[in-house]
Amino acid sequence: MLVSALLSWFSIHARDLPWRRTHQPYAVWVSEIMLQQTQVKTVIPYYERWMRELPDVHALAKAPSEKIHKLWEGLGYYTRVRNMQKAAQFIVAQHGGVFPKSFDDVLALPGIGRYTAGAICSIAFDQPAPILDGNVIRVLARVFGIRENAREKDTNARLWKLAEELVTAARSSGQPGPQCLSKTKATADMAVRCSGACSALNQSLMELGALVCTPRQPRCVSCPLAKRCVAWRDGLTEQLPNLGECVTATARRFVACVVERDGALLVRQRPAGVVNAHLWEFPNVGVALRTSAAEAQRALEAELGAAIETLTPLVTVKHSITRFRITLEAFRGTLSGGPLRPGAGEWVGAARLRQLPFTSAHRRVLETFLR
Prior knowledge:
By secondary structure, the chain is of the alpha+beta class. It folds into two domains: 2-234, Orthogonal Bundle (Endonuclease III, domain 1), CATH 1.10.340; 250-370, Nucleoside Triphosphate Pyrophosphohydrolase (Alpha-Beta Complex). It contains 15 helices and seven strands. Strands 1, 2, 3, 4, 5, 6 and 7 form a seven-stranded mixed sheet that branches. α1 (2-13) packs across α11 (197-211), α2 (25-35) packs across α3 and α10 (153-171) crosses α11. The protein is globular and about 75 Å long.
């Protein structure tokens, strides 16, 4: 039976991750939001630092905006952290600071969709709420041989139904107990704690997708579901899941200017309602991919509202935001005098700069300049 095989496998192979040492809903919530679009190894230090600084809903609800953005700095998709604070404030105001247990109440919180609500309710409260993320889609599509596009409405609904059937079956399976301790762990303080079978089942699906049923070169010979897997039987592991056509990435180019005056640098805060809102950056402007150095300088002068006397290369940072592949070219600049245009930026000293939350790319520019 699939459920029994998954639970048995998870009890042995579950990774010891910091958020698995508790099933407190706040901790589960923080980890799930951080893990969206982010790898586990990247999340671990962020999670540990966050839980030290903001250990509960009340601490998050009243934290200054600058603090939550600084703690999130580098994780990207900053709408996530702003929605977390809105949700924490809602929990304090409407639920007395106690994380709600009802699936509908959890789903109603800002920034929480069906998957995250299901993860919180199953992992923290052992409710038979299904989950469906990329890892689970891959496992289910391969095991059940689902060849249709997983992103299409009917196919996606079928996958949700399968996930629901599995977690519901886990509830009546009788295993595991309130705590499952991986056999690879030697001490109880390193235990993987589960609130019950629903928690373990959903985590086992995610874990199997992360460790065994990987996108490329899956370890099928080590899979507890191999004998039941249609894709393995029919040689379709490389074709499934079917996710449709990939969106072509769009290249974009930006130029930025690092200007120093009396030990302070010119920086600005991004406004609300835009990508990376509320984070800090150096004055910059988007330019055409083939823009010449002279044209780039004129674009920066227009952005600053002042003439640039010298402009020398500092660092080039390449990064991605959603479907965009971005090249940021940063220059050291010297202004020839005259007032800056309103909104061009403000002068901030080095000590304060280290406290401000910067976008990842501009943080690299700052670190390069301060070396």
